[in-house]
């Protein structure tokens, strides 16, 4: 009888452990799903980017605040954004790539970006080419975990660094871990 009781205890403990793991994983998935949003939910960036004057206007506004943007990647974050944590993997990886080129990084808060620049969500990144013109503007990546495997910026960064890009790429279409730009909602 004690052998049966001992086996029953093991089954109960194993069942409780499995239930705990499933509840923990479910809670993490639920928490992550709550942070999943569109990068440009009102399509303000998408509509503005359709104008031929958009990229030059962004470049002009940024040059007014940061005069030397040639060969620069501007990493933009918001202090209270929970998505910064996972995004820092992208930032570190990009900074490693830039260490091997003549490009450099500037890390700024969204409050350091000129107010006239439309930036619906964060984190975001801007890449300026060797002439100081906007080469890429938008989110780092998309997807459930916004991982480096789904990075938008990588598709453009190499071309900009190698001066093989044609014009500016403004990406507003993304669904992942983004925080609303608090400077535009307040």
Automatic annotation (TrEMBL):
A Pfam family annotated for this chain is DUF6436
Q: Which InterPro entries match?
A: DUF6436
Superkingdom: Bacteria
DUF6436 domain span: 61-180
Can you name this protein?
DUF6436 domain-containing protein
């Amino acid at each position: 009888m004690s052998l049966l009781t001992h086996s029953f205890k093991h089954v109960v403990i194993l069942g409780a452990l499995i239930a705990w793991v499933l509840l923990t994983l479910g809670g993490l998935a639920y928490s992550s799903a709550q942070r999943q949003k569109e990068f440009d939910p009102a399509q303000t960036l998408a509509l503005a980017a359709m104008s031929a004057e958009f990229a030059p206007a962004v470049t002009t506004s940024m040059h007014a605040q940061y005069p030397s943007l040639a060969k620069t990647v501007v990493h933009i974050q918001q202090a209270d954004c929970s998505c910064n944590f996972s995004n820092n993997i992208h930032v570190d990886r990009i900074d490693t790539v830039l260490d091997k080129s003549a490009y450099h990084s500037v890390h700024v808060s969204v409050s350091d970006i000129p107010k006239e620049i439309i930036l619906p969500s964060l984190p975001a990144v801007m890449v300026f080419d060797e002439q100081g013109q906007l080469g890429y503007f938008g989110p780092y990546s998309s997807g459930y975990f916004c991982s480096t495997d789904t990075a938008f910026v990588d598709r453009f960064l190499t071309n900009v660094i190698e001066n093989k890009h044609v014009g500016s790429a403004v990406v507003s279409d993304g669904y992942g871990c983004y925080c609303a730009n608090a400077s535009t909602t307040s």
